[in-house]
From TrEMBL:
<dbReference type="GO" id="GO:1901605">
    <property type="term" value="P:alpha-amino acid metabolic process"/>
</dbReference>
<dbReference type="Pfam" id="PF00291">
    <property type="entry name" value="PALP"/>
</dbReference>
<dbReference type="InterPro" id="IPR001926">
    <property type="entry name" value="TrpB-like_PALP"/>
</dbReference>
<protein>
    <submittedName>
        <fullName>2-amino-4-ketopentanoate thiolase</fullName>
    </submittedName>
</protein>
<dbReference type="InterPro" id="IPR036052">
    <property type="entry name" value="TrpB-like_PALP_sf"/>
</dbReference>
<dbReference type="InterPro" id="IPR053471">
    <property type="entry name" value="AKP_thiolase_beta"/>
</dbReference>
<keyword id="KW-0663">Pyridoxal phosphate</keyword>
<dbReference type="InterPro" id="IPR050214">
    <property type="entry name" value="Cys_Synth/Cystath_Beta-Synth"/>
</dbReference>
<feature type="domain" description="Tryptophan synthase beta chain-like PALP">
    <location>
        <begin position="58"/>
        <end position="365"/>
    </location>
</feature>
Amino acid sequence: MKDRSYSAVMARKNEIMKDSVGIDYDKYRITDIAFDYERMMEEVGYSLEEVEEIQRETGVGNTPLIELKNITKLVRQISASGRGARIFLKDEAANPSGSFKDRRASISVYKAKELGFKGVIAATSGNYGAAVASQAAKRGLKCIVVQETFDSRGIGQPEILEKGRACEAYGAEVVQLTVGPELFYYFLLLLEETGFFNASLYTPYGIAGVETLGYELSKQCRNLTGKDPDYVVVTHAGGGNLTGTARGLRKAGAYETKVVGASVNLSGLHMASDRDFNRKSFTTGHTGFGIPFAVYPDRSDVPRNAARVLRYMDRYLLVSQGEVFYVTEMLARLEGMLRGPAGNTSLTAAISLARELPEDAVVVVQETEYTGAGKLPSAQLSFAIENGVEVLRGDPFVLDKPGKRIVIPEKPEQIKAMDFPLDRLRKSYLKELVKRGYHKLAEEDLKFLSVDLRLNEDKIVEMFEEVLNNG
């Protein structure tokens, strides 16, 4: 019997991962830093047409694109003359389990079935678990979802508990853990002991599944407006949503469309902290995932992460929890659409962005998610108050303090997204390389980084030397 100790399991992680995703990542290695990303995506994934066919089999995709006419009207009322872009929303809640995560899960579960695996495992506290469970049910595979659920008091957020019940409703076994480092250990242990497929969010399968989202919305936007979107705003967490959408836009020929990432600003909160775990109201789409996965994408549960946002992101906007709750209510009251707050992170940023743009510009928000009782702002704000977080009305830009205070705007003019400089992310990416012991860059590294960071090689050399000299 293999050694089940923490250190022994972690030492076997590469071997476990290779067996559980069916990908030989060594084939794509160029140096310790560089790898052939596009070759990996081409050889391991599926063509766009194949992905569309796989998704049609289980009812995934072809979700409606809806113009938010009342919100656009409101934006124009509070903007300077001639400003206020049209805002459209891709209603991903129309997918089988209620979010865009069905697109990722559909391809991973299909691949698991194709390779002969008897079941799939996903480590997630978000909508992805329900999506994997739903797709596994459709394909007749067993499913285990490993979920970080509780703090050390045994208390879990209403949204996470609801998602756990949703996974069970689709027939999955749900393993619920307390916050801490044991999540990855148990995940590896279960993969090894069951021999199930790792339905990771970060394989080429998952990203290929999201490409149809970008492809569809481009075609729909052309039909509705006669042109591609000027901007697509994407809620950003681990990077797969943004990466897949941007790749899909390119495959549709929408090369001029700007891709904007949007995250809830949770700066100051530590995601692995027992104290902070229940002092945040968002389990995904926040900076606790968005920044670490942008600056160190290969920190994921596979050796080479297919989600690489700095290749595709044109701008990164941060919004507050209170603003997103406010916009969640706005979407319901003005457009008659009750959708979960996580998806409305991008809508919040889009409202701020639309105020900058001329009226003939088009902004597409590329996702929504289902709403259940645990996701309602009322449930989340009550839970925040129970855990010592102050909730008040006012200007979030001035008063917001993640983990201490949620500030709900008093009027729509107080929705103001904050730019996070992309060069700051790029510099942090290079700092991560130095932290891992890389103090010289080979020619192949520079070529890879030039694409991964969208910077010319001279600029990378300059920035890398600055990091080495000044930290």
